[in-house]
Amino acid sequence: MTGADDTSGALDLGTVLLEFRRRAGLGGLETARRAGVSQSKISKLENGLLRASPEDVRSLCDVYGVPADEREDLIGLASELKAASRLSRVVMTRGAARLQHHIGQLESKATLLRSYQPAMVPGLLQTRAYARLVFGGGLSDEERDAAVDARSIRSNALDDETKEFRLVVTEGALRWQAGNPQVMVDQLDAIITASRRPNVHLGVIPWTTPVEVFCTHAFHLYDSAAVLIGTEIASAVLDSTDDVNVYDELFDRLDLVSSTGDEARRELLRIRSDYQLLGR
Questions:
Q1: Exposure winner among 37, 157, 162, 241, fewest CB in 10 A?
Q2: CA distance 157 to 152
Q3: Residue range 228-234: average pLDDT?
Q4: Tell me: the pLDDT tens digits for 6-32?
Q5: What share of the chain in percent tops pLDDT 90?
Q6: What is the domain-level CATH number for residue 188?
Q7: In terms of domains, do 81 and 97 share one?
Q8: Which pLDDT band holds residue 231 (cuts at 50, 70, 90)?
Q9: If DSSP codes are grouped into helix, strand and coil, which group holds residue 279?
Q10: Are the C-beta atoms of 115 and 124 separated by less than 8 Å?
């Protein structure tokens, strides 16, 4: 079973579970209460955004009163999907604009978005001037403009206060001068402004902070359902529970050593001041 088949299978299973819930005459909230899970999880299972485990299916079948023969078929399908996810769980996306649209879809469905960046400003916080430099290499003007437009649209997600954003960036990423000092001054101003949003938790890891955790690549978590990892030529979306758990734990360790709140803003202002001096 390919990664695409796996996703399709999760959606098919979710559709069946939705039909059984409707037959039982239950709403999502009541189903969640009886199953001992969140309403959000029920919704994600039914929409194929989260793969139902055999245990999830067994619990919901109990709630819905599904007949024994159909129950075993559904549990069997969940077991097959779980086994297949271990074999094929990576979806590669190429093309700058296409990738931005793909990421935007993941972001629109998630309520908790976490991002770690050791090399550049997190995409959601990038100014257009900074983003144009990021996408400048190897792209035509048309392709670059399309990618920048798509990234700018993504940043609108910050306006949705039902979503929580936890972003961690290293000082090294902020010291990587994109274009010229003024671009970086404007970029740091944008980051400081975003950090004051009630739904944005920004962490900065100063170079002076001693650490015992090492992660050389960026990654982005969407709830606890998927993680996106970028390479120079493509980006991979991993959605196996084991893989996501690794990055859940890694993000927590990175978040723990970061400076946040007013302390983070002091670090940002310090870096901004250095760029102002450099630009004189």
A1: 162
A2: 10
A3: 76
A4: 444 555 788 889 999 999 999 999 999
A5: 54
A6: 3.30.870.10
A7: no
A8: confident
A9: coil
A10: yes
Indicate if 118 and 210 belong to the same structural domain: yes
Q: How many other CB atoms are found less than 10 A from the CB of residue 122? A: 20
How far apart CA 44 and CA 55 sit, in angstroms, is 16
Residue 78 and residue 29 share a domain = yes
What contacts 24+ positions apart, CB below 8 Å, involve 66-75? 66/20, 74/13, 74/16, 74/17
Across the range 254-268, mean pLDDT stands at 97
Backbone angles phi, psi at 197, to 5 degrees: -65, 140
Which pair of structure tokens corresponds to residue 236? 């991979």
Question: How far is the CA of 21 from the CAs of 18, 36, 42, in angstroms?
Answer: 5, 15, 10
Count CB atoms within 10 A of the CB of residue 86.
11
Q: Note the pLDDT tens digit of each residue in 52-98.
A: 888 999 999 999 999 988 888 888 888 877 665 543 344 444 455 56
